[in-house]
Design goal:
Length: about 280
Amino acid sequence: MSNERALAGQTAVVTGSSSGIGRAIAEQLGAAGAHVFLSGRTPASMEESKKKIEASGGKASIVTVDVRDVAQVRGLVESAVGETGRLDIMVNNAGLEYPGSIMAGDPEDWREMFDTNVLAVLVGCQAAVKAMRDCGAEGKIVNISSVASQRGDSGVYGATKHAVNVISASLRNEVEEDTIRVTNVMPGAIATNFARNFDAGFKAGVLKMAGLDIEVGKGERLPEEVLQAVSSQVKERFGDPAHIADAVLYVVKQPIEVNIADITVRPPKALNLAH
């Protein structure tokens, strides 16, 4: 089998695949031959990825999902198994951050972070293991954490990513006797719309570093071409989503006797943000 079609015949689910890292991962897995189930809340961008995957000879299906809803996460996995009869790869990527101090924080923002970054990962892992056991897959579960998890003072967001690390390590121990491997991937600063909830001043500073004079409000998404410019012009500080996708593809292509626990992928210079 050629390296380009190394995942032919496999079924993959990627949460948060409507943009950024998740979108890049889905497209990489599809190009490698997997039938990818893209899930997210923005169908239009997933349709673009679906066309791209199919143009490369792969297969893709779209499931609109809010990962904060337990039933929807379980239904996503059930949809993939129902359509293909199996599940081989589960990438729990969906995540978000509301930066800020604990004393100034909004509990509803915290709830959304924990529901998205922690509970959805737990439910996705649980559903994936059950599906992989049922079909006898040599399964790969990849949880997307963050370098924030490597700091002890990274705030509420960092706490959610510490939780992801613990979930990954605990599940890895639970499935040691199965043909299922669990890998924790910790990205550094990547040029995505992940920082859309950061204040306008931070985003303006990043854009200025990239030589761009654009006003962006809190919560506003940046166009794809702007993100590409940031990745290209400030590559020492911001990585490309493709870098994370490359790491995930490397992990899922390994034979089942290889157990990769953790991978950190970051640009050359750290961008340590105050929580």
